[in-house]
Amino acid sequence: MKKNSIKIIGITLKPNSTPEFYSILPNLCAWLLRRKKQVVFREEDRERVIKFFKQKSTDHLLFWNSKNFHNEVDMMLSLGGDGTLIGVCRRIKSKIPVLGINLGRLGFITEFNKNEYFDRLGDILDGKFEVTLKPLCHVNVMRKGKLHFKDYFFNDAVLAKNDIARMIYLRAELGKEHIYNLAGDGIIISTPMGSTAYSMAAGGPIVHPDVKGLVLTPICPHSLIHRPFVIPDSSPITLRILPPHHSVTLTLDGQVALNIDEQDVVTINSSKVKKVSLIKNPDRFYFETIREKFINSKKD
Questions:
Q1: Which of 48, 193, 218, 261 is 20–30 Å from 202 (CA)?
Q2: d(CA 12, CA 47)
Q3: What is the spatial distance between Cα 192 and Cα 215, in angstroms, rounded to a whole number?
């Protein structure tokens, strides 16, 4: 990116406010304004952003509706954890670089932590950075032959039961090939980036983020032969509910939920259009991060 081409900075905040915002936001915004950058927040965050400034003037800040916010900034800062960053990834225009800043403990996809991002921010604003381009997955739900729902996910899509002590039955296909009929609590379709999330907790493999594939991980399968699969992302995955029918929900990235009817057909494929540009941390390495996160999680 060319120097000085970054003029408008969007800042996304995690949904749950944290005391850190009272010190981080005023200092960060003042620093950006001294460098003649315009700072923008979502309109729905206006009330709490004003509170973080403790009666200091916020006239220098802009508040945009969600569509403009995710499509017209030059760079996006995501302040929160992996969930906050994932929410940004699902909405933002593909060419806008996203800087993920982790304010929590366990973050796999946020490239920078709260103690190091400031040291890099000057160079980043001067265009001295690299991005990794990651595709999102597209989801269609067909109901009675018509498109009922469509959206994207970055980490995973989960088709799971709602009822206690009930199994659901579903058929999974890759392209025109039948994978298996599954009885259990549900199934997780995970991207490589999302393989360290719910899929891993359910017994799925860790997949390097550069692998072009998807992971199918059964949730509490009733048969020992129903194991996780790593499959190519070149063909669509189709999921169909089989009888006896029970209440089922489709969840995307743990943030969007949809009730699935018994005749619905869920199709998932890697998008060739929708991608996200994540700013890389030159001091961060994948396997080192994996070791660090797992060691820290064991200590908690």
A1: 261
A2: 14
A3: 7
pLDDT tens, residue by residue, 246-298: 899 999 999 999 999 999 999 999 999 999 999 999 988 888 888 877 765 55
Yes or no: say if 73 and 42 are a contact pair by the CB < 8 Å rule.
no
CB 47 within 8 A of CB 111: no
pLDDT classification of 105: cutoffs 50, 70, 90? low
Sequence letter at residue 184: G
Contact 129, 123 (CB under 8 A): yes
Burial of residue 241, with CB atoms counted within 10 A of its CB: 0-12 exposed, 13-18 middle, 19 or more buried: buried
Between CA 218 and CA 206 the distance in angstroms is: 15
pTM of the predicted model, to two decimals? 0.91
**Which residue segments constitute the domains of the chain, with CATH numbers given?**
8-130+280-299 (3.40.50.10330), 137-272 (2.60.200.30)
Is-catalytic flag, 82? Answer: yes
Residue of 59, 74, 82, 151 with catalytic role? 82
What is the spatial distance between Cα 142 and Cα 237, in angstroms, rounded to a whole number? 13
Query: Do β-strands 168-174 and 131-143 pair in parallel, antiparallel, or remain unpaired?
Result: unpaired
The C-alpha R_g of the chain, in whole angstroms, comes to 21
Angle at 172 between CA 167 and CA 174, to 5 degrees: 165
